[in-house]
Amino acid sequence: MRLSRGRAAGCAALALGALLTGCDGTGLPDGGGLPGGGVSSAASGGQGTSPLDDPDGTKPGLAAISSQEDEARGRALIEKLSTKGRGPKTGYERDRFGYAWMDTADGVPLARNGCDTRNDLLKRDGQDIEFRSGSDCVIVSMTLHDPYTGKDIAWKKTDASEVQIDHVVPLSYAWQMGAARWPESKRKQLANDVLNLLPVEGRANSAKGDSGPASWLPPDKAIRCSYAVRFAQVARKYELSVTTADKQAMLTQCGG
């Protein structure tokens, strides 16, 4: 069974219904970090949705921000972030945010729709989707435009790790910036909130680890302002501070 992006988005919107809302490791890949490295790709232009037009994260993908007006809007959002030092990682474990891709994290879009978070995200962002026989949830093949690298990936479930789901604000980062003191229910929301989740190339996700924007940025320069804005949207929603270096790096990506 195949489903186009448009039909998939429509199904996701219906599943959303009346719900209201609103990577661990380290390393800097070649081309990551601040401007001066990486590659520029026109491929990200026209792909996905601008984060400024998608405050809930329910629309497909992540499109580049290119106009000076939108860059200014992005900077205004980033400027609102509070800053503090990154705390210790003591006590952090992935399961402190619930088991991976749970469908029962109440208070976020697409929760309790009968499909796990990972497949919800693949359905949101994928094109030419094929489901497992007899299922309207489990995706076995699709084409994904990866916003981080600008590449189009022909993905099959038999090579599942080729596409991974990135937490834009890494869970370990959130733990160090205050989530260690949150109730478990709020940590589960962050881990499964579609605003904080993007299907991306597996190698790019592994290279990012739990880095903040001062240490890692998408290799495709064209998408870096959008990435910074999405990082800020998540931090604002969950009342998370960022480090001073991360905030400055985010502003720089949007012309600050």
Q: Which class of secondary structure composition applies to the elements?
A: alpha+beta
Low-confidence stretches: 4-46
The total strand number stands at 6
* Helicity, as a percent range: 25-40%
Which sequence of SSEs, written as H and E, runs from N to C? EHHHEEEEHHEHHH
Provide structural commentary.
This protein is α+β, with helices and mostly antiparallel strands and 256 residues long. Helices cover 31% and strands 11% of the residues. The protein is built from 8 helices and 6 strands; from the N terminus they run βαααββββααβααα. The chain has helices spanning 5-16, 68-79, 117-125, 171-176, 184-192, 202-208, 224-237, 244-253, and strands at 2-3, 127-131, 139-145, 152-156, 163-167, 197-201. Strands 1-2-3-4 form a 4-stranded antiparallel beta sheet. Strand 3 and strand 4 form a beta hairpin. The longest helix is centred in the C-terminal third of the chain and has 14 residues, at 224-237. The chain is globular and about 50 Å long. Mean pLDDT is 87; it is low at 4-46.
Summary tags:
two-stranded antiparallel sheet, four-stranded antiparallel beta sheet, alpha+beta, 8 helices
Summarize the structure.
The chain is 31% helix and 11% strand. It has helices at 5-16, 68-79, 117-125, 171-176, 184-192, 202-208, 224-237, 244-253; strands at residues 2-3, 127-131, 139-145, 152-156, 163-167, 197-201.
